[in-house]
Amino acid sequence: MTLDDWLDLAAALLLVLGGFLSLAAGVGLLRFPDALSRLHAATKPQVLGLIFILAAIALEARSWSTLLVLAPVLVFQMLTAPISAHMVGRAGYRTGNFREDLLVTDELDEAIERASKETGP
Amino acid sequence: MTELRGSEVRKRIGWRLWQQLPLLVALVVLWMLLWGTVSWISVLSGVVVAIAVTRVFYLPPVELSGRLNPFWLLVFLCRFFFDVVVASFQVAGQAFRPRGVRSNAVIAVDLVTVSDFITTLTAITISLIPGSLVLEVDRDRSILYLHAIGVESVEEAERVRSKVLSVERAIVRAIGSADDVERTRA
């Protein structure tokens, strides 16, 4: 096998892995019990899935100009994903869109209670 | 208000420009990447757009610590990538396994640092690592409240907490102030 074949094989493997992680995200979206846990599936596995897919594209294209377009895609995904997850998570927590019976501990609730006791009702 | 002398004003403007310079350069580079060409026109239009954007969407200046350790930065980036890979497959496993996810936890992590910059970086890193998500930030006390998936006992919650603190330590070692390095070591 030549070097080109090996690179093609690596790209193919990366594409399969990226596809698998996206599938896992979809399955998680269906199977996780409440909104906050679904958020994990909706925002996270794609980060690595995207890295795999972008790496596969880079291996296939093998040109600097492609790489320079791919880099900002990844950077912006990594900068914006935590922020959107935080906004949705915060809104979900504040509006009570989660199942309290599933939580082992809820230290945010304790903190809020402590704070409201200090300031009075 | 006291009047500022010409030299002081110039110094102040110079300092602000110096602080904004990394952001301006990054915006110009991004502009050129988006156009896909390097030419005088793209550089000039990039500078114009960068200045316009920083004027219109004004952000408070980020207070950097002024310290950077390239070795620990590299260690941090490698560890971060490793964590992302491991945790991505863990969450994927939780999605596929028959019993699914039965319990989660909301955990408060009291960070050692008081710097906004380190707190933000820690929060972003934690959010990018699958399985944990920052719900709320207490900026004054630098406490992160995170939601962790698949946590089934208090001991596991403790493990998540020490994990976050070790991420913070790694970031501080890479780009935190000397003061923070001392504190995280203690």
Automatic annotation (TrEMBL), chain A:
Which ranges does the record mark as transmembrane?
A: 6-30, 42-61, 67-89
Keywords associated with the record? Membrane, Transmembrane, Transmembrane helix
At the top level, the lineage of the source is: Bacteria
What InterPro entries does the entry give? PhaG_MnhG_YufB (IPR005133)
By sequence similarity, the record places it as follows: Belongs to the CPA3 antiporters (TC 2.A.63) subunit G family.
Q: What is this protein called?
A: Monovalent cation/H(+) antiporter subunit G
TrEMBL record, chain B:
The record's annotation in InterPro entries points to: Cation_antiport_E (IPR002758)
User: Which sequence ranges are marked TM in the entry?
Assistant: 21-51, 71-93, 105-129
A Pfam family assignment:
MNHE
Q: What keywords would UniProt list here?
A: Cell membrane, Membrane, Transmembrane, Transmembrane helix
Indicate where this protein resides in the cell: Cell membrane
Per UniProt, what is the membrane topology? Multi-pass membrane protein
Q: What top-level branch of life does the organism fall under?
A: Bacteria
By sequence similarity, the record places it as follows: Belongs to the CPA3 antiporters (TC 2.A.63) subunit E family.
Name assigned to this protein: Na+/H+ antiporter subunit E
Q: What species does this protein belong to?
A: Antiquaquibacter soli
Q: What is this organism's lineage?
A: Bacteria, Bacillati, Actinomycetota, Actinomycetes, Micrococcales
